[in-house]
Amino acid sequence: MPSLRSFDKLTAPRMEPVADGVWLMRGGLPLRTMNVYFLEEPDGGVTLFDAGIEEMTGWIAEAGERMGGIKRVVLGHGHPDHRGGAPGLGVPVLCHPAERSDAEGDGGQHYFDYSRLEWRAARFALPRFMARWDGGPVRVEGTVSEGDEVCGFRVIELPGHAPGLIALWREEDRLALTSDAFYTLDPQTTRYGGPRVAHPAFTQDEARAGEHAQAGRARARDRLAGAREPAHERRPRPARAGRNGVTAADGTLRGGAGARAGHAPRVPACGAPRPAGVS
Ligand SMILES: [Zn+2]
User: Fold this and answer.
1) Of 188, 224, 206, 214, which Cα lies nearest the Cα of 76?
2) Quick check: is 263 in a domain?
């Protein structure tokens, strides 16, 4: 009979390096399909992209602490399984303006249509899982839009799955963090496959979501680090001056403890300590 401690080890989230300055925490029972990206800030600490589910909150906080502290959370979108850990972290939360009301409200569940799930067991189970995953409404302290910079990435708007869904794109090593713009996991069977449009049961505008998925498949294929299965490319990132925090397209910094208006620190390398792993 496995002890509670060994069970805890089996289910603990895992941290893995994705690319220069980018770490992925995979967590959630039973298959660790919930992803949180840790983006190293040039002067220490991390910005999170998406916040996983509520039960990951303690693990996220611990990993963030080891990496110099969590400066802010930027939500790819506000669904319960992406905002879940955010309320318990006590750090500023940012999202796209079109996502604000859902992130501060029901997490977009007012347009979820569980009757569109093909499997009866999924129609029964997923609303219950969704309630369990959700950490509840967040207080959004700022917003990010197309062209803004987040920790060296550019914000790209991909509305469809959610009205304010954003991806982060880093040109230097062509790394995209795409939240739920694509699924590679079937939420009913939990089987992985190629990038595809998110399931319509959880999608606000199916047609727009489909357009992005089609364009993304053609353009990016295996270069996308999707929220439900990362297919990372580990091409080394060229040396560059780092940018800290969230920078608006007009060059001003905003959002989070490390952001100072009108000041964009430029340092040669990311200095955050490497996490030794969470489990
Ligand atoms: Zn979603």
Assistant:
1) 224
2) no
Instruction: Give residue 125's pLDDT band: very low, low, confident or very high (50, 70, 90).
Output: very high
Around ion ligand 1, residues with a beta carbon closer than 5 Å are 79, 180
Query: Residue 111 belongs to what domain range?
Result: 4-254
**Does a structural domain hold residue 239?**
yes
State the burial class of residue 79 (Cβ atoms within 10 Å of its Cβ: 0-12, 13-18, 19+): buried
Q: How many domains does the chain have?
A: 1
Q: Give residue-wise pLDDT tens across range 252-277.
A: 444 443 332 222 222 222 323 333 33
Report CA(238)–ligand 1 centroid distance (Å).
32
CATH number at residue 82: 3.60.15.10
Tell which wins on pLDDT, 129 or 224.
129
Q: For residue 99, how many C-alpha atoms fall within 13 Å in the half-sphere facing its CB?
A: 34
